Amino acid sequence: MKSNIEQRDGVYQWVYELNLFTNPVILFVLWKIFGVICLGIWMFISLLSINDIGFGWYKFLETSKVFALFLVGMMIFTGLGYYLYAAFLGGKYCVLFIMDDRGILHAQLPSQYQKAQVIANLTIFVGALTGKAGVAGAGILAGTKASSYSQWSTVKSVIGLPHRHVIKVNSLLEKNQIYVEAEDYSFVWQYILAHCPNAKIR
C-alpha cells in the first residue's frame, strides 16, 4: 500500500481526483443506462405490436430503425451534456473514500475543493462524513453533492477495470464505483475481495 491511502484505527481513507475528460467512465455508465432503457421500450412496443394487423418484418424493421436513430441521438445528447457538465466542474471530479471492514463510502466533494486541499484537511472531511463534524466539517457536509455506501455483506458482484482505475461494487440497490490510483489498485482490490466472499468476481 502506498502513501495515497491513510490508515487510522482500521479505517482506510483516500482521495481520488477523476479526470472527466481523459477517463470518461461515468459517461459509459450513463450510456449503458439509456441504452438499456431504449432497448426495454423497443422490446415492449415490438411485443405489443406482434398481433397488430399488417405487422410484419417490414414494420418491425421500420420500428427498429426509429429506435436505433433515437438511441444514437440520445447518446450524442448525453455525451454533449456530460462534457458540458465536466467543463463546468473544471474537468475534475474529486471523491473521498472511507473503507473499513463493514463497507466503503464514496462521497463526491464540492467542486471548489481540489485534491491537495482535501488531503491537507483529511481529518475534517472524514469527520464530516462519519458524523463527527465540527463547525468546519458541517460546512463541508452541507456542500457535499452525493454519496453512496456499499456494505460488504450485501455486495453481489465486484468488477475490476484496472486500466480505468475503477472497481465496481454492486449490490441489489446500490451501484458503487471505487476509484483508485494505479499503485494502490491491487491493495484495494484484494481488500474488497477478502470482505465480499459471496460476490461474483469479474
Bulk shape: elongated
User: How much helix, percentage-wise, in residues?
Assistant: 40-55%
CATH class of the largest domain: Mainly Beta
Q: Could you give the count of β-strands?
A: 9
Order of H and E elements: EEHHEEHHHEEEEHE
Portion of residues in beta strands equals 25-35%
How many domains?
2
**Low-confidence spans:** 115-120, 132-145
CATH superfamily of the largest domain: Pleckstrin-homology domain (PH domain)/Phosphotyrosine-binding domain (PTB)
Task: Report the radius of gyration as a whole number of Å.
Answer: 21 Å
Distance between the termini: 23 Å
- How many H/I helical runs? 6
Order of neighbouring strands in the sheet with most strands: 1-2-3-4-5
CATH topology of the largest domain: PH-domain like
Biggest sheet record: 5 strands, antiparallel
Question: If you average the pLDDT, what whole number results?
Answer: 80
Structural class, by secondary structure, is alpha+beta
Per CATH, the architecture of the largest domain is Roll
SSE topology:
Layout: E1 6-8, E2 11-19, H1 25-49, H2 57-88, E3 92-99, E4 103-108, H3 115-120, H4 122-129, H5 135-143, E5 146-151, E6 155-161, E7 166-171, E8 175-179, H6 182-195, E9 200-201
Parallel strand pairs: 6-9
Antiparallel strand pairs: 1-2, 2-3, 3-4, 4-5, 6-7, 7-8
Task: Explain what the structure shows.
With 202 residues, this protein is an alpha+beta fold. It is built from 6 helices and 9 strands. Mean pLDDT is 80; it is low at 115-120 and 132-145.
